[in-house]
Amino acid sequence: MENKIDQPMTLNKLYRTWYGIKRRCRSEKHFYFKNYGGRGIKMCDLWHDDFYQFEKWALANGYQKGLQIDRINNDGNYEPSNCRYVERKVNAANRRSLTNTSGYIGVHNSNNSGYVAQISLNNKGVHLGSFKTKIEAAIFRDVYIIKNNLPHTRNLL
User: Fold this and answer.
1) Does residue 117 carry a pLDDT above 80?
2) How many beta carbons lie within 10 A of that of residue 126, not counting itself?
3) What pTM was estimated for this model as a whole?
């Protein structure tokens, strides 16, 4: 099949994105494998086996210059139902926290033996509420983001 973008594959941004995802998810020698394949994150077989399927999905789902591929669920796989194209700041905000012991973005243990849900808006912390369990806090935070049509936001600890 000929290259639809009409340039050498190594110059094709989508090809480099596809190849990078494959390497992070499959190659134990890749520097970031521990953060992707090492955590069980995979690229779906449809995309892994056929760059043109990935390219076709990307072009039909918002790919444009300046945007980055983002996994909606940061613990989920690279697959059509879990990926989107977003601005760099949204992608950067949708990261797992390496210091958050609750395991949920924007949720942390409070001093009063409960859990607090927070988001950051315009570089200011917004307290969403206190909850008995971390799951209640995480669900409330996710619903708040969806109801207010907000992008994934950086967690606050």
Assistant:
1) yes
2) 14
3) 0.60
